[in-house]
Amino acid sequence: MAGLIKREDIDEVRQRTDIKEVVEAYVTLKSAGIGSWKGLCPFHDERSPSFHVRPQMGSYHCFGCGEGGDVISFVQKLDHTSFSETVEKLAARIGFELHYEDGGTGPRREDVGKRQRLLDAHKIAAEFFRDQLLTQGAGTARQFLQERGFDRAAAEQFGVGYAPQGWDTLLTHLTGRGFTLDELKLTGMFSASSSNAGRFYDRFRGRLVWPIRDITGDTVGFGARKLYEDDQGPKYLNTPETSLYKKSQVLYGIDLAKREIAKNRQLVVVEGYTDVMACHLAGVGTAVATCGTAFGTDHIKIARRLLSDDGTGGEVIFTFDGDAAGQKAALRAFEEDQRFNSQTYVAVEASGADPCELRQTRGDDAVRELIADRRPLFEFAIKASFANFDLSSGEGQVKALRHAAPIVAQIRDVSLRSTYTRELSRWLGMQYVGEDQVARAVAAAARRGSGSAPSGGRQQAQGPQDQRGQQGYQDQQGSGQQGTGEPTDSSEPFFERPDPRDPMARMEREALEVVLQQPTALTAAQWESFSTSRFTVPVYEALHNAVLAAGAAGTELSRWVESVREGVPDVLRPLVSELAVRPLPAKDADAMVVYCRDILNRLTELRITQQKAEKLGQLQRMDPTTDPVLYNQLQRDLMELEMQRRLLRED
Fold it and tell me: Which of 50, 109, 446, 504 is deepest in the core (most CB within 10 A)?
């Protein structure tokens, strides 16, 4: 019987799972200080990294969109799985056996999430195709690979397989493994018979098959190449759109290339499965391919996150065939160029050969040279567009200049823009259009473009300071709406965002950052001081109370931030995530200890100052003769508080 996962097991999975390792399957992270990492947010499109991860606390937070939480919520949101499915997935990842309440044994087959069932079916199908490649009937498929320079090791590296020519070999295999027809209909691996209602048959038959995996390595679809003349289908046949497979969102080879892309800050986009194989085997491990569609907006989002496309470097290289179709594809890619901060290039072999053909005829070096000899995509686009103008006439040159000047004006590198301004003059010819006229046209285009960036232009996304008023509670000058843009729920408590110029608010915030991020660094005296301090800013008072409750409950470090999050109103949970990952200004471990001590000492000193003010006021209102014992006690208390304050200053 299925049951709820035991709470202690959930906590164990959360504690044992390295959130940084999980996040890096989706996002390229860079060090952002001691114990802190940052990258481009996977939850929204941004150009400057504002997504932070604190592995020690098991937390993440984006200062741009406000998303935050622990490793379970991260996987839930990105993989669209339920809480139980996510915990089960993470438990399987670390090899941890879960236990369930009321004697449950976990979800029954019929209760397993639909997505996971589909993934399981694809995994088994990929293994089936791979095994079939070694059978006697797959001789033509093996010959196809050998003729293109791919041996058995290469086929295994990329999971290449063979779909037998029978009508229902895969169908029989999967139903024999316990999958129902209703489940298999949703995979896209089968087609319905037009003549026999209710009958299904294998979609891929007598074809070489490549598994198409998502960025995490899960197989979500297949691409299949025709092998036999009597096959009436298209040369390449892919999985149709399913809940798993969205062709505009998948890149073949991304699972193998993601680490090289992040390491080398380079993405190479090729046109086919064999081109990806050829590039990787030749040493270009950053190659990926689209699956039957143009390289579009959703692909760019994936690429930018892996490239850490923040304007500090990186390159995207498109390879296209040298024919008219390849040129058209390059121009389509150029239309999307403005969505990148990285420099975009195009690599086209003079003979028109693709990477697979190059490797076959001239070896691995030729593939590497093709990529190394790339040229800027804007140069390719400009020269290709000149085919539309008569450059032998003055009128044609002027029209070509009007078309090309805005392209050159978009070049981010000023020195490179100057170089290509001169090159443009040469490409156009000097007879009718001189270099000065070209320079003026480019400068004018740059001025026109600086007023407001066109759609898709390189406008920088707002950084953390720009969007801090959108974290789930209202600014002092707010519009009465939450950060989501929806009206505030009247049942939720109302909180104003503290004025960042208020020194008291700043000190309370910094103290909360320390306690959330470095709870084990607090001495007993510092914890006592923090516990007895009065927080005056309502937002931080609510967080202070939640911290005290988590501390009183003896919360383990693995659940520390999550426990505090659970203890505040929903509207303040993003703030807990924010403070739990905000980088602390310390360059090393020793400096971190000093910083935490100083912040908490300041809080303690403030508490002492408040107590002194209260006792001094009480003392000034008293007549010493009416209660001399209390009067003397207040004086002793004031002296003791002053001694404590001086000791803090000496610390």
Answer: 50
Which amino acid is present at 423? E
Q: Rounded to whole angstroms, how far apart are CA atoms 132 and 421?
A: 57
B/e letters for 300-325, b = 16+ CB within 10 Å, e = fewer, are bbbbbbbbbbbeeebbbbbbbbeeee
Instruction: Choose among 419, 350, 430: nearest CA to 378.
Output: 419
- Which overall architecture, per CATH, does domain 503-650 show? Orthogonal Bundle (1.10)
- Candidates 310, 375, 305; CA nearest to 344 is 375
Contacts of 237 (CB under 8 A, 6+ apart): 203, 204, 207, 223, 224, 226
Are residues 295 and 31 in contact, defined by beta-carbon separation less than 8 angstroms? no
Residue ranges per domain, the chain? 7-111, 114-245, 254-374, 389-450, 503-650
Q: Is the dihedral of CA 599, 600, 604, 610 positive or negative?
A: positive
- Using the predicted structure, report yes or no on whether residue 484 has a pLDDT greater than 50: no
Q: Give the whole-number percent of the chain exceeding pLDDT 90.
A: 39
Give the integer Cα–Cα distance in Å for 42 and 74. 10
Contact 346, 330 (CB under 8 A): yes
Given the DSSP bridges, would you call strands 266-270 and 37-39 parallel, antiparallel or unpaired?
unpaired
Contact in structure between 130 and 159 (CB atoms under 8 Å): yes
Query: In this structure, are residues 618 and 635 in contact, taking their beta carbons and an 8 Å threshold?
Result: no
* pLDDT tens digits along 81-139: 778 888 988 998 888 888 888 666 554 444 446 888 999 999 999 999 999 999 999 99
Do 227 and 208 meet the contact criterion of CB atoms below 8 Å apart?
A: yes
Bridge partners, 52 (sequence order)? 38, 61
CATH number 3.90.980.10 given to 114-245: yes
Q: Which secondary-structure segment (H or E) carries 157?
A: helix 152-157
Q: Say if CB 190 and CB 202 are below 8 A apart.
A: yes
Measure Cα distances from 347 to 329, 370, 441, 599 in Å: 12, 6, 28, 55
